């Protein structure tokens, strides 16, 4: 448990292998693990489309071909600074460096086909002098983090760690879902500066979603240097429900208490009287600080059960690595993917069935955005499909107006 002078920063790293394919699984992970910072590799973002996750800022570093790519998501209430984003066009190595308080957090992806250039890692080390943590899919092998072989990239990383007093936090477990005949593959690495290594706990999350990489999770307990505008570990404070306040009574009591009082009233007396008035006229609300998490309007208990079955199959395979159990786990991943896709489609159709010409248009488009993966950025690629748009407009427009014409006007307006 952190004391009043410390704060906990939770980091989730995942080679997501397509944000579009795994967005709903990511939201499920956020709901379960509540990370402060998320470091994604292989996002496969299209550079001209604005993707987003509710209650998080997103810093992106995309590849022009729509593959690879890294993205760092930071809770919207956390203060941060972007230090550097970089894409090495020769090796396709990518990284994003942010700073929270006095801690540097680097999201790094080293392309599998690349012969790593030492300058890439040296640049990161030079930019992150002090308290630093580096996480990502580094596609490298060395025995010190559990691989059965040593390759060129592994040698370079090991040398830079030694020269700059960095520590590897991996414990040898594989971070990829591989068939039982292959060697363990701990390629998703977490390394940090020696001075904070004892303050970090590291683990692997046992659900890889539709990716073949398991997410890794770190908890860093560090002195509070103003990293956030709130702290989950601070004592609970009084919070008042202003919507239910009796302002008439507030005024009456205030007039009585402060009547004929001189302007030089002692501060302590004033504060005590004011607190008494507040206690009588403004009720308290939930004292717990609300932590916002992304919403998923179509997610229900059936979806949770599918995830539980997938996780159960993956855990069983990790404990009993046979070809049969591997195939069962892969089958559960595929069946969960099909189920979630169909559930989303069914729930969206059901929502469209509730629409009519009296439905609030702002609420409608807000719900459409929650079902989609993108946020409107005034490009035609972010607009709703013709089939979806006309389905909604048929229910919102008068019967004598062709909804398709309205959709065409909408497209022309947003070109």
Outline, from the CA principal axes?
A: globular
Task: State which percent range the strand residues make up.
Answer: 15-25%
Counted by DSSP, the helix tally is 11
The protein's oligomeric status is: single chain
Number of strands: 12
Main structural class: alpha+beta
Largest sheet: 6 strands, mixed
Helix share of residues? 25-40%
Strand order of the largest sheet: 3-4-2-1-12-11
The radius of gyration is 26 Å
Amino- and carboxy-terminal Cα gap = 53 Å
Report the uncertain regions: 228-237, 378-383
Tell me, rounded to a whole number, the average pLDDT. 83
Order of helices and strands: EHEEEEEEHEHEEHEEHHHHHHH
Task: Describe this entry's structure for a reader.
- The protein is built from 11 helices and 12 strands.
- The chain has 415 residues and is of the alpha+beta class.
- α5 runs antiparallel to α6, α7 (301-319) packs antiparallel against α8 and α10 (386-396) packs across α11.
- α1 links the parallel β1 (6-15) and β2.
- The radius of gyration is 26 Å and the shape is globular.
Can I get a quick summary?
This protein is of the alpha+beta class. It contains 11 helices and 12 strands.
Annotation keywords:
single chain; alpha+beta; six-stranded mixed β-sheet; 12 strands; globular
What's the layout of helices and strands?
Elements: E1 6-15, H1 19-33, E2 37-41, E3 56-61, E4 70-75, E5 81-87, E6 94-100, E7 103-109, H2 118-127, E8 131-137, H3 152-163, E9 166-168, E10 188-193, H4 194-197, E11 200-204, E12 216-223, H5 247-258, H6 267-281, H7 301-319, H8 323-352, H9 361-371, H10 386-396, H11 403-413
Parallel strand pairs: 1-2, 7-8
Antiparallel strand pairs: 1-12, 2-4, 3-4, 5-6, 6-7, 8-10, 9-10, 11-12
Helix pairs in contact: 5-6, 7-8, 10-11
């Amino acid at each position: 448990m952190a004391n009043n002078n410390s704060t906990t920063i939770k980091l989730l790293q995942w080679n997501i292998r397509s944000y579009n394919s795994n967005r709903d699984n990511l939201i499920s992970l956020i709901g379960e693990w509540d990370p402060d910072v998320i470091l994604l590799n292989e996002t496969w973002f299209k550079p001209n489309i604005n993707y987003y996750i509710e209650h998080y800022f997103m810093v992106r570093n995309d590849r022009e071909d729509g593959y690879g790519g890294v993205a760092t998501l930071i809770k919207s209430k956390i203060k941060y600074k972007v230090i550097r984003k970089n894409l090495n066009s020769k090796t396709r190595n990518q990284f994003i460096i942010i700073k929270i308080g006095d801690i540097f957090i680097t999201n790094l992806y080293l392309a599998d086909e690349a012969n790593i250039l030492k300058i890439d890692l040296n640049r990161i080390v030079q930019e992150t002098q002090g308290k630093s943590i580096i996480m990502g899919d580094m596609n490298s092998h060395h025995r010190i983090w559990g691989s059965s072989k040593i390759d060129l990239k592994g040698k370079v990383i090991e040398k830079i760690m030694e020269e700059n007093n960095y520590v590897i936090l991996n414990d040898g477990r594989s971070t990829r879902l591989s068939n039982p005949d292959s060697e363990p593959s701990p390629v998703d690495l977490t390394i940090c500066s020696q001075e904070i290594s004892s303050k970090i706990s590291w683990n692997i999350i046992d659900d890889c979603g539709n990716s073949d990489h398991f997410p890794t999770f770190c908890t860093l307990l560090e002195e509070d240097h103003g990293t956030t505008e709130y702290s989950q570990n601070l004592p609970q404070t009084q919070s008042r429900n202003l919507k239910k306040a009796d302002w008439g009574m507030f005024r009456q009591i205030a007039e009585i208490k402060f009547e004929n009082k001189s302007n030089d009233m002692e501060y302590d007396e004033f504060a005590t009287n004011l607190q008494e008035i507040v206690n009588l006229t403004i009720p308290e609300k939930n004292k717990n600080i609300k932590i916002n998490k992304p919403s998923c309007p179509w997610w229900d208990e059936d979806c949770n059960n599918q995830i539980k079955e997938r996780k159960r199959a993956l855990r069983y395979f990790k404990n009993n690595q046979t070809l049969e159990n591997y195939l069962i786990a892969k089958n559960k991943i595929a069946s969960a993917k099909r189920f979630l896709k169909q559930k989303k489609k069914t729930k969206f159709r059901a929502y469209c069935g509730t629409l009519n010409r009296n439905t609030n248009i702002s609420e409608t488009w807000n719900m459409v955005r929650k079902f989609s993966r993108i946020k409107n950025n005034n490009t035609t690629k972010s607009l709703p499909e013709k089939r979806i748009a006309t389905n909604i407009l048929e229910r919102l427009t008068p019967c004598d107006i062709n909804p398709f014409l309205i959709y065409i006007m909408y497209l022309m307006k947003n070109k």
